[in-house]
Amino acid sequence: MFTGIVAEMGTIEAVAESTTGRRIGISAPGLLSEMTLGDSIAVNGVCLTAVAIGEGSVAVDVVEESLMRSNLGDLVVGSKVDLERPMEAGGRFDGHIVQGHVDGVGIVQSIAVEGEARRIRIGMPGDLAHYVVEKGSITVDGVSLTVTAVGSEPWFEIVLIPHTLQVTVLGRRTAGDRVNLEVDVIAKYVERLMGK
Question: Which residue, among 47, 39, 43, has the nearest Cα to 15 in the 3D structure?
């Protein structure tokens, strides 16, 4: 389990096709010092497994399913990615429950300047809209955020403080960019238990 609090922004250093999808090498010297083979790591909100570890770098395998359902297929050498290690049992819980299971890809529709903050409107797949509520939680590219507005088209808005703009890939996003979305898992379980 993750919490959506990004630990480091990594840099893609290699992308290679494989028999199951792609192997992606990521440089992140501050985050990877204690990782071992088989450990989990969230990359732009997608839970992946470390299959090789080097000096300040990690390689992960991304299967076709994950490439289709996320923006990881857009990555090239030099791309920046949000990274988070799983939460330790008994650790601080700063964000919200994040599984690392991307529900869909949204499109950045607009970015408005609000002083030093930025208001970002993101279009989302229609089948996710009923899980997103104003003042609820959503994960965008691995970042736990509060929804500030929702629309019927469907879209939602988030407002990013300067710190988030500086330490996550969201500060580099522009209109038209694809972003990974994970809705609140509790809403999905409630829906399933209520029989929709």
Answer: 43
Lowest mean pLDDT among 66-80, 92-106, 138-152, 160-174: 92-106
Tokens of 175: 């209109």
Tabulate helix, strand, coil % of the chain (nearest 5): 15, 45, 40
Distance in angstroms (rounded) separating the CA atoms of residues 44 and 131: 20
Do 16 and 75 have their domain in common? yes
The two three-digit tokens of residue 63, written as one number: 């299967």
Query: Could you check whether the bond before residue 154 is cis, i.e. omega within 30 degrees of 0?
Result: yes
- Pairing outcome for strands 57-63 and 117-123: unpaired
Note the pLDDT of residue 196. Answer: 57
The CATH number that applies at residue 76 is 2.40.30.20
Residue 132: inside a domain: yes
In a domain, 42, yes or no: yes
Q: With residue 31 as reference, give the H or E element that holds it.
A: none
Domain of 123, in residue numbers: 104-193
Spell out the alpha helix ranges (H) of the chain: 64-69, 162-167, 185-193
Percent of the chain with pLDDT over 90: 77
